[in-house]
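Standup notes
- DV: blocked on the single-chain target, sequence here:
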Amino acid sequence: MPIRTDHDRGITTLTLDSPDTRNALSARLVDELAEALAGCGDDEAVRAVVLTHTGTTFSAGADLKAPPSPYTFVALLRRIVTLPKPVVARVAGHVRAGGLGLVGACDIAVATSASDFAFTEVRIGVAPAVISLPLLPRMDPRAAERYYLTGERFDAAEAARSGLLTLAAADVDQALAPLVEGLRRASPQGLAASKRLVTARVLATFDRDAEDLVQRSASLFATPEAREGMTAFLERRDPAWVL
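- DV (later): unblocked, structure below
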């Protein structure tokens, strides 16, 4: 099973558990994560959700061998944003491409200082289109411009400065402990109402731009340049355009 579920005193932890694929976002993983989140939303015993991972990679982005449809992935991101419970990302490793969309959709995101991040889409001939829905309303515009265009890696301190993360810490669990305890002490009604306030701008972006960005993403993935980029990635070589 690509998703593991654990419960402790009102907190449900959903663990991306496909380390052999670096928790790549396959159609199956996306479907099962969406189903698990729906269950958390309906369960009155769940006060908040922690989204974490096994292995050294939170998520390597879309599984190029078995990807979800753009609509399915948008629906997953929207479910995180609209879930009436806070969703907290716990990151201890690498995050790439679509994985940054998961982190950006979460209400709180904490990572180890050693974690690193990259928008690698530009290097295979596509763009971080769909994941822009939760990310662009939250990230510093200049940081987004730089990292979208260069595909370079950046560290957790820069991710926190840019607005991708809430905070970076040497010990992610120590940093999370007071945040999770605060969520346990909050009322369910108060959490739901407060989350609606802080996610309103992100949700408005989904309502306005989702269809356009899904179409842009699909169009890019269908191009010869993207096919060359994905083939080069799978074959572990440089694509034809690298100078």
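- Follow-up: DSSP finds nine helices and ten strands in the chain.
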